[in-house]
Amino acid sequence: MVPLEHVLVLASLLFLVGAACVVARRNLLMIIIGVEVMLNAAGLALVGGSLYWRNLDGQALVVFILAVAAAEVSVGLALVVLAHRRRRSLNPDDFKMLGGSR
Amino acid sequence: MTFASLIFYLLGLVVLIATLLAVTARNLMHAVVHLVISFVGTAMLFYLLGASLLAALEVIVYAGAIMVLFVFIVMTLAMPVSGGEGWRYPLQWLPAGVLCLVLLVAFTALLAAGPSVAQPMSLASASPLDLGVYVFQRYWLAVEVVSFLLFAALAGALYLGRKSRTERQGEGR
Amino acid sequence: MKGLVLIMLLAPLAGAALNALAGSRLGRNGVRASACAAVLIALAAAAGALILSHGRIQDFTLWSWIKVGSFQAAMDVHYDSLAGLMAMMVTFVGSVIHLYSASFMREDQGLVRYYVYLNLFTFFMLVVTLADNLAFLYLGWEGMGFCSYALIGFWYGDNEKASAGRKAFLYTRIGDIAFGVVLALCFVWFDDLTITGINAQAAGLSHGAALALGLLLFWAAAGKSAQLPLSVWLPDAMAGPSPVSALIHAATMVTAGVYLLMRLFPVLQASPEVMWLLAAVGALTALWAALAALAQRDIKRVLAYSTLSQVGYMFLAVGASDIVAGMFHLLSHAFFKSLLFLAAGCVIQALDEEHDIFRMGGLQRKMPQVGMLFFIGALCLSAFPLLGGFFSKDRILLAAFLEPGLSYKLFWAAGFLAALLTPLYTFRAYFVAFGPRKAGSEVKPSRGTPRFMTAVLWPLALLALMDGLLNLPMGPGKHWLARFFSNVPGARIELPASGGMELAMALVSAVGVLAALGLAVWLYRGRAAESAEKGWRQALAQALYLDRLQLSLLVRPYRAVSNFLWREVDDGGLDLGFTTLAQGLGIVSRGWAAWSGGRLTVYLFSVLLALAAVVVLLTFAWFA
Predict the structure, then answer these.
(1) Cα–Cα–Cα angle for C413, C417, C423, rounded to 5 degrees
(2) Nearest to C2 by CA among C50, C72, C49, C55
(3) Do C383 and C513 touch, CB atoms closer than 8 A?
(4) Count of B–C CB contacts within 8 Å?
(5) Do residues B22 and B34 touch, judged by C-beta distance below 8 A?
(6) Virtual CA dihedral for C22, C24, C25, C28, nearest 10 degrees?
(7) What are phi and psi of C131, to 5 degrees?
(8) Calpha distance A31→A34 (Å, rounded)
(9) Can you tell me the ipTM of this complex?
(10) Cβ A19–B96 below 8 Å, yes or no?
(11) How far is B30 from chain C (nearest CA, A)?
């Protein structure tokens, strides 16, 4: 099989793709998708580590990550729907009513 | 290059490409579908790395529930297909791209300079039973807490997503 | 004695202070009375001091003014014969001028201001006359400069007149810089700023030191006395009222330079080069100014150039090591030149501010007293034989001739030539302004001249005529002045010339003067107009273009540099730099403000940025 480093490199690649998606896309739904990608990448890294050290802790953590991701997505999407109802827009730059002196 | 490692690299490529397509998709629906492919690939990777229960859970929960939720939301919101986003000009991508590149270089450098663990891992597999017992034995408290979390999320999502009074009145008529 | 000197100094100062503070309350009569009284008191005190001093030197301190470490600038007084006589002259001529001004300025709006400055000027001049400590002298020196600026530009509403005041101040200031350096050098070399102390140590000066001090003293004196090359302010300074011209440009300020040289004569004597320079500049200025006076149309400018010429003679005297002659001529000049200026003032006022002599004419008949006074002054200025100016100028020329070296003979020649020109230009002015004209083309004075104004001038005329008696070269009471100055370092009683040579020179001068007088009568009597100013006449009228030369050589480049510094360096460089900095700060801060504008995308990017920063740091730490 592959060395742990390769697994980690793949995981970091996926993680960075997700990070780029979060930062660069101007759509609330795409931001949440980016977050999901990042969580997924983290899970991959954990499973790789678990195999390397022959320890089930890594896999157990991934279980919980899945659960938390599910909870977070449901609440997040509900919020997106609510925001969309108010503003008719999914662009995060339109939601700066609370921000700054301007 | 063993058979398993070949599978690994292939799957890795698939996942990477699917994620990239998802992230750069103009059409939200396309993005979701690409992401589903990515998650299924990831599930296969999990299996390869010896986490069979996790592979199943990944498909059921992630690809099956979360992504379906996304599809529902995309359909409900009735936004124009591109999500109302004017985009693809360099100023939007460039800062993120540069930073991610920098991070990639850093990560790779760190990994390459680690203690010499560049030998391949040997295959192993944890059966679902083993994992289940492990989780419920060692992390039973976390399991309970996560169930509370899920319940809270359920209640929250229900409340946040309810129709406003005017909408409900309109519907009842 | 000390008391008398104090009264002499403080009376004019008190008069100035009184009029400055309460002048408007005293009323015009009160102001005039108090100012004139102040100067008359000073005159009495000066006379008393002169009598009481019995020809002995008196040194005393009025007030220990500044004392820092070994630097002492006390208000010391060194009262020797030179100072005593100079003080008498200053207060006497000052009194006449104060009294004359009471009538001359009778209708002027700024009467109070005028008398304040006039009194103040008298005070400062007396400080210069009596001071022993150079710092105290510098106080008077600078004070005189300021008062002259205020008085020359008295009618400051007219821009030209105000500029004339500024010009005078700036030019004398250029000389004053040298005086400041002298102060510093004296402190460093002698540790003593008193004239007595410096004169005592003068003999031991090294050649270079004496040269340096001498040159600086020359420059300072040249500024105040308007000698070449710092002459151009004096003709323009005629913008002030005529009594001011009489006081400042006949008797006091222009003579202050020469006076300083005479006080510090031992220092000058220590350097033959400086003596040569003094004689050269004096002779050159005398000749140049006499030539320029020949072509002037403004009566006061004729007198101004004449002053330049006569002060040139005084410089020549000092350069020829004969300070008795210099002081003698100083006294004569004070009397006849101020007489001339004041008479001219009468004329100008009577003709409603007309200065051009070719627009006057036949005034001897219309204003007989003034004409007579002017005539007396003109005779003395021309060194008419046996009158005041004759003996003093003659002695100067003799002293120059007797000095060793060919150059001194040249200086004598220049002086002699100027002495021939003097009657020419003086009587040109007299005949054109006062002389008879064709009937019908005479000018009628539009205002009468108050009798008081002419009455105060007669004592002055008398003194001018009799002034020669002070130092006759032969006969009873001969060399009285020279012997009176015996306690002044460097004064020579007699010149080393045989009686025959003296007589010969006197005869030559007399003949020359009379001949020039005759020429003047022939050329100018009855002349009503002069050909237009072009060619050599224009060159002379512009005083050989010295003013324009200095303007283009000095003033224009200076203005160009200062414009450059203003526009490019200050506005362009500094201001622009600061403005750009401020704008840059604005841009930076606006950019910075965009960071916390409540935009989600910016926050997300910030998180990623922070993550990248931390990871990169850790990577470097790992690999370092």
Answers:
(1) 150
(2) C49
(3) yes
(4) 25
(5) yes
(6) 110
(7) -65, 145
(8) 5
(9) 0.92
(10) yes
(11) 23
